[in-house]
Design a protein that fits this description.
Elements lengths: L21 H23 L3 H29 L1 H4 L1 H26 L6 H17 L1 H18 L4
Helix pairs in contact: 1-2, 1-5, 2-4, 2-6, 4-5
The site of one fe (ii) ion (FE2) has 5 residues, from helix 2.
Length: 154
């Protein structure tokens, strides 16, 4: 991907991204890997259909991942404990989905889409989200699970 000037920092997994919740971390690693492959493929060649395909795959996996996190929120009462953070978190998920759906719609309608802008958005969104609001949820889930494990069986 060296021949193209890019205006974003390609995402890379770092231990700082770990939330300590194994299922969430495995899904985050998968999302980061998928996006890294997408960066390489999209910046390396210019197949027309590729961007739409990648956006759709990423969206499908991301939606499944959002469901995982949002069901953890429900299971452990995140919204009751931190209503504003929980609402902001879910809003970030919805915003991501809306943006990627818009990209897919534009492509389907044959409207021009800048792959650089799309990649910039995806890389920045994923990095900021995983390093930011997902960390709060991870800490909350870890604590809730530890509390549950410490409870004597009923
Ligand atoms: Fe999230
Ligand atoms: Fe996440």
């Amino acid at each position: 991907m060296s021949q193209v000037d890019i205006n974003f920092t390609p995402i890379e997994w770092s231990e700082k991204m770990a939330t300590g919740v194994p299922q969430v971390d495995a899904q985050h690693r998968y999302l980061v890997d998928t996006l890294r492959r997408a960066n390489d493929r999209l910046l390396g060649d210019h197949e027309g259909a590729l961007l739409g395909e990648i956006a759709k795959d990423l969206l499908n996996y991301a939606i499944m991942h959002f469901e995982t996190e949002e069901s953890l929120m429900k299971r452990y009462g995140y919204e009751a404990a931190f209503p504003d953070v929980a609402r902001a978190h879910i809003a970030q998920h919805r915003d991501f989905s809306r943006q990627v759906v818009a990209v897919c719609d534009h492509l389907r309608e044959g409207r021009p889409v800048s792959r650089m802008d799309v990649l910039k958005y995806l890389n920045e969104w994923l990095r900021n989200h995983v390093l930011g609001i997902d960390q709060k949820l991870g800490a909350f889930v870890r604590e809730a699970e530890a509390r549950q494990a410490a409870e004597p069986p009923a």
